[in-house]
Amino acid sequence: MVWLKTFVFTIIVPGTVTALIPYLLLSENPSLFTRIGPFQFPGLIPMAIGAAIYLRCAWDFASAGKGTPAPIDPPKTLVARGLYRFVRNPMYAGVLLALLGEAWLFKSSTLLVYAAIVFTCVHLFVVFYEEPALRRQFGESYSDYLAGTPRWIPRVNNSARRQER
Q1: pLDDT at 126 over 90
Q2: pLDDT (tens digit per residue) in 65-123
Q3: Domains of the chain by range and CATH?
Q4: How many CA atoms lie within 13 A of 55 on its CB side?
Q5: How far apart are CA 130 and CA 20, in angstroms?
Q6: Cα–Cα nearest to 18, from 105, 140, 87
Q7: What is the pTM of this model?
Q8: Helical segments of 64-108, H only
Q9: Secondary structure (DSSP) of 6-67
């Protein structure tokens, strides 16, 4: 059941953020969809990497955490494996990377501003809701995780520090 809930959440929330809203923002100028030049195609790379990051994190939530990415059905155990060894919020980073790739692909300053707004909202959600909730749920193990893992930008030597523990 956790896999089905993860699939449904992925379609509804990240799907809306990365596909539906950008489509609506760009649909006022349909020529953006047909005038993609060769220098825009590299935008597909961050889109694909962002999607892969999200899917890997959703897999870890379902398999290791026995929960979903949805705040109403979070993992039951702390997920600190996979990409979560390097940053605390790789799933959000993957979504933002996909949005930045879309902005590049469609040469859209509107999508760039939208990505900045999404990042601001996500950052505020993480700081004021998610981290306090996880601290209450997982206690000292989450505090240790906070101390050793950066929120957004991985440390160059973070994997070496993780292996020492």
Answers
A1: yes
A2: 998 999 888 899 999 999 999 999 999 999 999 999 999 999 999 999 999 999 999 99
A3: 2-22+40-164 (1.20.120.1630)
A4: 7
A5: 25
A6: 105
A7: 0.88
A8: 90-105
A9: HHHHHHHHHHIIIIIHHHHHHTTSTHHHH---TTTGGGHHHHHHHHHHHHHHHHHHHHTSSS
